[in-house]
Amino acid sequence: MRGCFVTGTDTGVGKTVVAAGLARLLVERGHRVGVMKPIETGCEAASGGELPHDGRLLAEAADIQGDRQWVVPCRYSEPLAPLVAARREGRAVDFEAIWRAWEHLKTHYEWALVEGAGGLSVPISPKYTMADLARELDLPVLIVARPVLGTLNHTYLTVHYARSKGLSVVGIVISGYDANTANVAERTNPEMLEELCELPVLGCVPRRATIETAEEAARAVSEGVNVERFIARCAGPLPT
Prior knowledge:
The chain is α/β, with parallel strands linked by helices. The chain has one domain: Rossmann fold. It has 9 helices and 10 strands. It has helices spanning 15-28, 53-62, 82-89, 95-108, 130-137, 151-164, 184-197, 214-224, 227-233, and strands spanning 2-8, 33-36, 39-40, 74-75, 111-115, 123-125, 128-129, 141-145, 169-177, 201-206. Helix 1 (15-28) packs across helix 8, helix 2 (53-62) packs across helix 8 (214-224) and helix 6 (151-164) packs parallel to helix 7 (184-197).
């Protein structure tokens, strides 16, 4: 199965936009794409009903039909790290539900785009992080990074941590990039990230005031990301 685990250098960096945009662009190329956000926090409803915001955008982007509840098997009301949210609600993360959802995805789709919550070191349960989940899913990692000052450090640390956990890294996507910026850090960061991390920057998703639909996400990603290169990077084994 082709695919990747979409993570970020921080929360709110644009993971969902990138994952949804890639999902829609892959569907438009004729691929059967399964999407999943194993744990979503900050949900309006903790369980049942409609999908929460991120899961809904992913499902719409991938044109998931019928029952969509498996797209987000675990949900928590407060916008916190899963371990913290789970403890505050007195309800541990349901790993069995995650694995059932993953088996469904693997059975019915040829591509898997799985979006984590926050960054790779975010705790899911004691001594178990998003990086551990990505490793058990046996997916390479796509890192979504900010364009601004500080991203060299955050991204390099994320890449280093991923490699220390035995994960392969597909590449880096910079989200919220202003091609016309006068900011020196933002202009030079893409090239410096490739040099420091020894990974390709697969593209820079342009800054938008809002992105609320799958079509808007796909349009933004298509403007900034080399999708064919992304597909090729997901096609075979990558060095860790």
